[in-house]
C-alpha cells in the first residue's frame, strides 16, 4: 500500500530540515533551518552541527506539520537520512525518526543522502525519469552516474580528492570570501574575466579512453593548489585585491569545465541525451548554462530549484517512498553511517 503522507527528516550536515509529502511529489510542508554559526569558522564544525540539530529538530518538524496543516497521527511513513554525512549530525535525525516511528507504530526507512539528491529534480520535473546521465555535485561528493532505472546506478566517475563543492569552499577561503564557497565565488566571479588567469583542468586533457579510469574521474586538488600559488604571486606583487574577481572567474570556469567535459563524454559514449543535476553545486548558473548549451536542442537538462538542490527533507521523503515500496520498512536497529554505501551502485565496466 502506497503511503499517503510521508515525513522526511534531514540532518546529515548543517541543515535541519523536515518535509511532508503527499503521494510521491506534492510537497505540503517544507522547512529548512540553516546553521549560521558555521559562518564564523569558514566551514562546518561537526560538534556544533550536532548540538544545533538537537536543539532544533523538534521545532523544525512541528513547523513542517503546521505548514502542511496535518498532525503526526496523519503520517503513514517516516524517512530519515542514514548517511553519508557527519556521524553526530546523522545520529540526531535518525534517533528522532526511529523514536517517532516506534512511538506511533509507523514504518521507518533510512535513506541514502546522495540517492535522495537524484530524486530532488523529480519533485518539480515529473518527466525526469530514467534513463539518464546524472551528475551529483556537492560539498562531499562528485559522482558521475549512468541511471538506466531507479535503484540501478552505474558509477562512471568520481573525484579522486576534493569534492567540487569542497574545492569551492577552499577557494572562497583563499580569496577571503565567506562560507559557503560556491555562491560567494559565483558572486565575485560575475565581475571578473576568466581569461585573465589560466588555471589547470586536471584529468581533462590527455589520451585517456573509455574504460580507463582517467576518462570519467575528476580531480580538483591541483586546481586548488594552482589558485593558491597564483594568489601568493599576486600578493607579493601587491596586485591581489584588483585581481580577486578575475581569479574567482578563472577558478569557477576551470571547475565547471571539468564537470562539463566528463559529463558530455558520458552523454556521447552512452548515447543518452538526458542529464540530471543534483547537489548544492547544481545551483551554479555557469554549470547549468554551459551544460545546456553543450546538450543543445536535442538534449534535455533537468535540475532542481535552489531550495531543492541543497540539503533538504523533501528529497529524503521522496527517496523514502521509493525505498519503502522496493525494500519495505527498516528495522529499528538501523544505524547511521558516515560512509554509507550507495544502494544499487556498481562500477561501470
Structure description:
The chain is of the alpha/beta class and 349 residues long. It has two domains: 5-118 and 309-347, 2-Layer Sandwich (Nucleotidyltransferase, domain 5), CATH 3.30.420; 130-303, 2-Layer Sandwich (Nucleotidyltransferase, domain 5). It is built from eleven helices and eleven strands. The chain has helices spanning 46-68, 87-104, 113-120, 164-174, 181-189, 213-216, 221-237, 240-270, 285-295, 306-309, 313-327, and strands at residues 5-10, 15-22, 26-34, 77-83, 108-112, 132-137, 142-149, 152-158, 274-278, 300-302, 345-347. The strands form two sheets. It has a six-stranded mixed β-sheet, sandwiched between helices. It has a five-stranded mixed β-sheet with strand order 3-2-1-4-5, sandwiched between helices. Strand 4, helix 2 and strand 5 form a beta-alpha-beta unit.
Summary of the model, kept short:
The protein is of the alpha/beta class and 349 residues long. The chain contains eleven helices and eleven strands.
Q: Tell me which CATH architecture of the largest domain applies here.
A: 2-Layer Sandwich
* Poorly predicted regions: none
Q: Which sequence of strands runs across the widest sheet?
A: 10-9-6-7-8-11
Count of individual beta strands: 11
Over all CA atoms, what is the radius of gyration?
20 Å
Q: CATH top level of the largest domain? A: Alpha Beta
State the order of secondary-structure elements, H for helix, E for strand.
EEEHEHEHEEEHHHHHEHEHHE
N- and C-termini, Cα separation: 37 Å
| Structural class based on helices, strands and sheet pairing | alpha/beta
- The shape is globular
| Assigned CATH superfamily of the largest domain | ATPase, nucleotide binding domain
Q: Number of DSSP helices?
A: 11
- Work out the count of structural domains: 2
Amino acid at each position: 500500500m502506497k503511503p499517503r503522507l510521508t515525513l522526511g527528516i534531514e540532518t546529515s550536515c548543517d541543515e535541519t530540515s523536515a518535509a511532508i509529502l503527499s503521494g510521491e511529489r506534492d510537497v505540503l510542508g517544507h522547512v529548512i533551518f540553516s546553521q549560521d554559526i558555521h559562518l564564523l569558522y569558514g566551514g562546518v564544525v561537526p560538534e556544533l552541527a550536532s548540538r544545533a540539530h538537537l536543539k532544533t529538530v523538534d521545532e523544525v518538524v512541528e513547523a513542517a506539520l503546521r505548514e502542511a496543516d496535518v498532525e503526526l497521527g496523519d503520517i503513514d511513513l517516516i524517512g530519515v537520512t542514514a548517511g553519508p554525512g557527519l556521524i553526530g549530525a546523522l545520529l540526531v535525525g535518525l534517533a528522532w525518526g526511529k523514536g517517532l516511528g516506534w512511538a506511533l507504530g509507523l514504518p521507518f526507512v533510512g535513506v541514502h543522502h546522495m540517492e535522495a539528491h537524484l530524486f530532488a529534480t523529480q519533485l518539480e520535473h515529473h518527466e525526469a525519469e530514467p534513463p539518464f546521465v546524472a551528475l551529483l555535485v556537492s560539498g562531499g561528493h562528485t559522482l558521475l552516474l549512468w541511471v538506466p532505472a531507479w535503484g540501478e546506478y552505474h558509477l562512471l566517475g568520481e573525484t579522486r580528492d576534493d569534492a567540487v563543492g569542497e574545492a569551492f569552499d577552499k577557494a572562497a577561503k583563499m580569496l577571503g570570501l565567506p562560507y559557503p564557497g560556491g555562491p560567494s565565488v559565483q558572486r565575485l566571479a560575475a565581475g571578473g574575466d576568466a581569461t585573465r588567469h589560466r588555471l589547470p583542468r586536471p584529468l581533462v586533457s590527455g589520451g585517456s579512453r573509455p574504460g580507463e579510469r582517467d576518462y570519467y574521474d575528476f580531480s580538483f586538488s591541483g586546481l586548488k593548489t594552482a589558485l593558491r600559488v597564483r594568489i601568493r604571486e599576486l600578493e607579493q606583487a601587491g596586485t591581489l585585491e584588483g585581481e580577486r574577481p578575475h581569479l574567482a572567474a578563472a577558478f569557477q570556469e576551470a571547475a565547471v569545465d571539468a564537470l562539463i567535459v566528463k559529463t558530455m563524454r558520458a552523454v556521447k559514449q552512452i548515447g543518452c541525451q538526458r542529464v540530471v543535476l543534483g547537489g548544492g553545486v547544481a545551483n551554479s548558473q555557469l554549470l547549468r548554462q554551459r551544460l545546456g548549451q553543450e546538450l543543445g536542442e536535442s538534449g534535455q537538462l533537468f535540475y532542481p530549484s535552489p531550495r531543492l538542490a541543497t540539503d533538504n527533507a523533501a528529497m529524503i521523503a521522496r527517496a523514502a517512498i521509493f525505498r519503502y515500496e522496493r525494500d519495505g520498512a527498516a528495522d529499528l536497529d538501523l544505524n547511521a553511517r558516515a560512509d554509507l554505501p550507495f544502494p544499487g551502485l556498481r562500477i561501470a565496466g
